[in-house]
From TrEMBL:
The gene is pgi. It catalyses: alpha-D-glucose 6-phosphate = beta-D-fructose 6-phosphate. It is an enzyme of class 5 (isomerase). The keyword 4Fe-4S does not apply. HAMAP family: G6P_isomerase. Its EC number is 5.3.1.9. This is Glucose-6-phosphate isomerase. Belongs to the GPI family. GO terms for molecular function: glucose-6-phosphate isomerase activity. It holds the Pfam family PGI. Catalyzes the reversible isomerization of glucose-6-phosphate to fructose-6-phosphate.
Length: 556
């Protein structure tokens, strides 16, 4: 925003913010000259720049920001009516304007009386869907639904992609110690036949149940994978009734589901007012519930609801999702850092970076305002990450010594899930050490002194010291969980969902559509038809040549 603050946008609402942007831009000029560690001369910094909410603890004292700068961001948020916008979302206003939909994933994890207040009679559908989920879990676990010959169902394959995949995958991985039903869960997303073969090799056709998750029930990858698994299962089992008995669907498109052969009884609803990437809390979570049981699934939702309550009730200055969003905006737009690293120091959270890549970048990777005007500022950063400590032996070299500053979110559970307590201590030590190292860096003088202490002569010091300096000054958040439980995972996912929403409000975009993804889908079909010999005028000569090479090689 600093460079672009002068390009005043004309429509009502957008011009209001320009004085704030200019003010923040000039504060940022000053911040750029500052070392984060110098801010710690304030003895109360850690107390002032940390908070607890919904069982999570956030330390943001290692951000390059002062109380005054944060207050300026928050007062800008107030001018953009952030609080009112939060209320609108939770009340079910049609805030997804381009798709004319409400955004109500939060109501899925709310108590019945809240559901009733927001949805009125529609609340009954939620309760019915929840009962249907519980019934399916119960029938599969108790053996009421079993293989043709009465053998118990042993495996479940969930087929879905994008928002119908990432949340399930992340929660299944994170909550492995809570897998308690005895069912073995597998998840299939990619259209790559290699991924399909890998899954099929693990599955006994006769005792596998399948859940197809697709809001539209038209998504190419999901439909092709579902058709291939169907054929394989019918062939392998020799049981023509297996689809009707052992397959389930979660979708809004009931006609397509029944045309596929899945019974109405086995079809769970989705609603237009739940976006795919925010849908884990709905019947989309069925595969998760089949692994962890309904009680643990409710605990996950309770954790998310606790964060929802905090988000709605806490003052902006003490509101964890709001603060996370403001820090992200400060880094992205004012300090001009284009990336954001997500670094869970927890093997169980290894799928989280991928999940956040989708929720964040698919939501906020936009360049026009909700009013349809070109934005004069950047929106979502490039989100990437990996579990620690693996990340330290991969891309973190660049974070220490390249010219780019990449803000990080470190996430760690204080109690480990394994019996290897010393391993956990070493893991946590590495997490804390990285945020420290990225903030402090190493000056030339320090590098010289170290070399000297190690016995190097002047010539060697002169040559090598510069290679051993590190820029430091990398801002980070550290999020602490007491332990990784269904509740803390629910709170963590809801925290990021709300952070994304707040940033969307600040950037004045619609975070809940994803038209960009559609272009790829359309062109994908075009390319496919060209590969089958059809004409396609839209394709460039490069793509045409690539197709020709494919056809030649595929035939030879
Ligand atoms: O990635 C684009 C997207 O449209 C997501 O929003 C959605 O979660 C995913 O594809 C899958 O869509 P569906 O649930 O309709 O199969």
């Amino acid at each position: 925003m600093p460079r672009h603050g002068i390009f005043l946008l004309s429509k009502k609402g957008l011009s209001i913010v320009n004085q704030d942007i200019l003010n923040l831009s000039s504060l940022a000029e000053n911040a750029r000259q500052r070392q984060i560690h110098a801010l710690f001369t304030d003895p109360d910094r850690v107390g002032q720049f940390s908070l607890s909410a919904a069982g999570l603890f956030l330390d943001y004292s290692k951000q390059n920001i002062t109380r005054g700068e944060l207050s300026s961001l928050l007062s800008w948020a107030e001018k953009l009516s952030l609080k009112a916008k939060v209320t609108e979302m939770f009340a079910g206003e049609q805030i997804n304007v381009t798709e004319k939909r409400a955004v109500l994933h939060t109501v899925l994890r709310a108590p019945a009386k809240v559901q009733q207040a927001v949805l009125g009679e529609g609340a009954g559908e939620l309760a019915a869907a929840e009962r249907q989920m519980a019934d399916i879990v119960n029938k599969l676990c108790s053996g009421e639904i079993s293989a043709d010959d009465g053998e118990t169902i042993s495996h479940v394959l969930a087929i879905g992609i994008g928002g119908s995949y990432y949340g399930i995958k992340t929660a299944l991985t994170a909550l492995k110690p809570f897998h308690s039903t005895g069912l073995q869960l597998e998840v299939l997303a990619n259209i790559d036949g290699g991924a399909l073969m890998e899954k099929l090799a693990k599955l006994p056709a006769k005792t596998t149940a399948v859940v197809v998750i697709s809001k539209t029930f038209t998504t190419q990858e999901t439909m092709l994978n579902a058709a291939a698994v169907k054929t394989w299962m019918l062939e392998q089992s020799g049981d023509k009734d297996i689809i009707a008995r052992q397959w389930f669907a979660v979708s809004t498109n009931l006609d397509k589901v029944s045309a596929f052969g899945i019974s109405r009884e086995h079809t769970l609803p989705m609603w237009d007012w739940v976006g795919g990437r925010f849908s884990l809390w709905s019947a989309v979570g069925l595969p998760l519930a089949l692994a962890i049981g309904m009680e643990n699934f409710s605990r996950l939702k309770a954790g998310a609801f606790a964060m929802d309550e905090h988000f709605q009730q806490a003052a902006l200055s003490e509101n964890m999702p709001v603060l996370l969003a403001m820090l992200g905006i400060w880094n992205r737009n004012f300090l001009e850092h284009g990336c954001q690293a997500i670094l869970p120091y927890d093997h169980a959270l290894r799928a989280l970076p991928g999940y956040l890549q989708q929720t964040d970048m698919e939501s906020n990777g936009k360049s026009v305002s909700i009013e349809g005007e070109a934005l004069a500022w950047q929106t979502a950063p490039v989100v990437f990450g990996q579990e620690g400590t693996n990340s330290q032996h991969a891309f973190m070299q660049l974070m220490h010594q390249s010219q780019d500053i990449i803000p990080c979110d470190f996430i760690v559970a204080l109690q480990g899930a394994s019996d290897y307590h010393h391993h956990h201590q070493v893991l946590v030590a590495n997490c804390f050490a990285q945020s420290e190292a990225l903030m402090l860096g190493k000056t030339l003088a320090q590098a010289r002194a170290e070399l000297k202490a190690a016995g190097a002569g002047d010539e060697e010091i002169g040559r090598f010291a510069v290679h051993k300096t590190m820029k430091g000054n990398t801002p980070s958040n550290t999020l602490l969980l007491d332990a990784l439980t269904p509740e803390s995972l629910g709170a963590l996912l809801a925290l990021y969902e709300h952070k994304i929403f707040v940033q969307g409000v600040m950037w004045q975009i619609n975070s809940f559509d994803q038209w960009g993804v559609e272009l790829g889908k359309v062109l994908g079909n075009d390319v496919l038809s060209a590969m089958a010999g059809g004409e396609s005028e839209q394709l460039s000569s490069s793509t045409t040549m690539l197709i020709e090479r494919f056809i030649k090689q595929a035939r030879s």
